[in-house]
């Protein structure tokens, strides 16, 4: 039955790496399961997956979030600078 499998994507990007993998996961899978099934950990073993935040289409989620058809799981790097602070600093220098 077609509803037994979900088509999803897992993506991660940094300054020097872009990772995007389309895969099929069993219905009822979580974000954590999809990341484990992707080749992300093998391709980027230096990543601390526990330290990264995750989301679906730019909305933060938890690793136990159940996936839906065509979800794109995004892994977010930690912020280097607070965007609000950076905006204030730019405005003050004008």
UniProtKB/TrEMBL annotation:
It comes from the Bacteria. Gene3D superfamilies: RnfH-like. It holds the Pfam family Ub-RnfH. InterPro entries: Mopterin_synth/thiamin_S_b, RnfH, RnfH_sf. Belongs to the UPF0125 (RnfH) family. This is UPF0125 protein GTP23_11055. It comes from Duganella fentianensis. The lineage of its organism: Bacteria, Pseudomonadati, Pseudomonadota, Betaproteobacteria, Burkholderiales.
